[in-house]
Design a protein that fits this description.
The protein is mainly α. It contains eight helices and no strands.
Length: 187
Amino acid sequence: MTFDQLEELFYSLKINASPSAFHGFLCGRLTCGAVAIDLLVEASTEWLALSEEQADAADSDFRDFYEASLSNLEDISFLFKPTLPDDELPLEERLIAVGEWCGNYISGLAEGLGESFELSDDGKEALNDLGAIGQISVDLESDDDGERDYTELVEYVRLAVQVIFTDLHPELDSELNEDSESNPTLH
């Protein structure tokens, strides 16, 4: 589900939330490990402050969105991308969405992990950087450098999430190594 599709779903259900913020929260929660889909539905219902009627109407779409998001996070070819607005929106709005995504990713991660977890030094740096990006300021002049910087920022967010996800799921890293050893063209 794209940003626009999720935004349309939110609009049709009168949900007042940012698709980027919601996807960030969801990905943070999914990064913590296997979560029963019913628990994700419940956490999302609370996060979005949905009525029972809204939750019922969105249930199928949300379940599909959760499964696709988890699949992209787990994919060893790093298909994951944060759900953000398309490039036709002003840079300032897209930067706000990146900040919302990162801030809510940290929130979802904190909710799922609790107090005790281990990250590599790279994972700790990625987590700190995502926290800083979540505080992003949009006092800028838009130019070609701003667009390039935005593209690099989104790519950094994508890779930072992969580093954290891999740290918390070492079994996926071993699957990648096994695939590399059995298929030398992947090196």
